[in-house]
What we know:
The chain has five helices and six strands, in the order αααββαββββα. It is an alpha+beta fold. A hairpin with a 5-residue loop joins strand 4 (about 115-120) and strand 5 (about 130-135). Helix 1 crosses helix 3 (about 40-55). It is rod-shaped. The mean pLDDT is about 80.
Amino acid sequence: MNRERALRTLGLEKGARAEDVNRAYRALIRQAHPDAGGSTAVAARITEAYHWLQRAGVEPPQAPTLPPPPQPDPPATEKSDDSYALRLPPGDIFARLVEAGHQLGEVSYIDRDAGIVQVTFTAHNGVVCQLAATVVSMPSRASRGEARVEFTLDPLASGEAPPIDQVVARFARIFQRTSL
């Protein structure tokens, strides 16, 4: 079989697209199939033409690709003298904080009732630090599942801790990639 004969068997023109091939095949095979009272030989010829066109490069259309799921808004930040806060999107925030903490360093303390997660990590400057994240109640946003998380950063060894906003920004990026 060649392309011209396969197209002619399906009743199609030379520039037929994959959708045209599929549509013609389905219409013809419904009529020609032996279970519908048709001929085995005719159904075999239709099927052979269809498969030949698929192998030759006229493929059936691909299922449409779905757009990626919407990404959550980035956490909003607030800074004070000794702490840094994020307003985080809905979800199981505490569990995601713990998971993000494991990715940042070693989770050294967890108190779910108090909403505290402490993470010990080595900063880029080599200083061992402790980042404490505390989930603070936000009554005005609780209905939407949003929470405020306050952070404090302390060096645990001699040396200076990196700027808290840089550490929290890194933590926020990890948090956004974390899903449970």
